[in-house]
Specification:
The protein has 316 residues and is an alpha/beta fold. Helices cover 35% and strands 29% of the residues. Helix 3 (99-109) crosses helix 4. The longest helix has 18 residues, at 173-190.
């Protein structure tokens, strides 16, 4: 069974104070397999938050249909809310409730019996290293602790799908890494399906099984990170490290398929149309240079940030 299967989802916001209406989602088709981590990327205003809001039943789509864990997105919204949970990078829990009281409160809202609720809270406090802060009010927690509490809260009902909107925004690198590892472990050990939005490309690449790129309310690319990187043929970078005097760049630039040449001390970086076609001829030219000793050759693969930038600027 698909964790998420939606077709033709549209959402338009009406005009406000003289501004035009905003067609935020323009026919979204999306399928997510159970037990995967699926990342939704896109520039600001692409429709990511709107899509998450529709999938979590916070917004009703204008058009379209679909299912969440087999439940009808339009007709079984109450049942869907019982089996999902959501958190954002800007958590807003009850200020004067402690860590324990917040978790207990949300456990009660989900109707979890007292004994089970207490056991679950203890597990979550341990998982997110909150034991020392269990009696600390929410408004006295640091940003990182607030985020860890929010993630704990989002797991209180043992959701089948966890929706995370910028889960590590504003966190220092060490805490961000800890959160990512915890999410990865929850996915791998418990089969938790996670839907993630983020602006951090390393986070998306580390966590995600599949990625969808959203732009102007439409999904314009989808797939595994490696396939997305290989699918965008915007050139390959080859970097040569050498010892010797400055190179004769004219001979290099004149070769077929050379898009750009950049020289720094003891290294030359060349953007080519296809490294498989150009690498041999480049090596031959550099080896033929007198007084040049070639030290190393480095092929630089595009990363997910390159893909993001390229897709964001491509006319749509």
């Amino acid at each position: 069974m698909k964790a998420i299967s939606v077709r033709g989802i549209h959402k338009t916001y009406p005009p406000i104070k003289g501004k035009k209406s905003v067609h935020a989602l323009r026919g979204i088709d999306l399928e997510v397999e159970e037990g995967t981590i699926f990342c939704i990327l896109g520039p600001n205003g692409a429709g990511k938050t709107t899509l998450i809001s529709v999938l979590t039943t916070l917004l009703f789509p204008d058009k379209g249909e679909g299912t969440i864990c087999g439940l009808d997105l339009l007709r079984q919204r109450g049942e869907i809310r019982e089996i999902i949970n959501v958190t954002s990078g800007n958590p807003n829990l009850t200020d004067n409730f402690s860590v324990f009281e917040n978790l207990n409160y949300y456990g009660m809202l989900y109707g979890i019996p007292k004994a089970l609720r207490k056991a679950k809270i203890e597990t979550l406090v341990a998982t997110f290293d909150l034991e020392a802060f269990r009696d600390t009010p929410f408004n006295q927690l640091s940003t990182g602790l607030k985020q860890r509490l929010a993630l704990s809260k989002s797991l209180i009902n043992n959701p089948k799908i966890l929706f995370l909107d910028e889960p590590t925004i504003g966190l220092d690198p060490q805490i961000s890494e800890s959160v990512r590892l915890t999410l990865k472990e929850l996915n791998q050990k418990e089969g938790l399906t996670i839907i993630l939005t983020t602006h951090q490309m390393d986070e998306a690449e580390f966590l995600s099984n599949r990625i969808a790129f959203l732009k102007e309310g439409e999904i314009i690319a989808e797939g595994e990170a490696e396939k997305l990187k290989k699918g965008l043929r915007f050139g390959d970078l080859i970097r040569f490290h050498y010892i010797g005097p400055p190179l004769d760049l004219d001979r290099v630039s004149a070769l077929e398929g050379i898009l750009k040449v950049e020289v720094r001390e003891k290294q030359i970086t060349i953007l080519v149309d296809d490294r498989r076609k150009r690498l041999d001829s480049l090596i031959r030219i550099l080896l033929s240079e007198q007084h040049i000793a070639l030290q190393d050759v480095e092929v630089i693969e595009p990363d997910l940030e390159d893909v993001f930038i390229e897709l964001a600027k491509t006319p749509h």
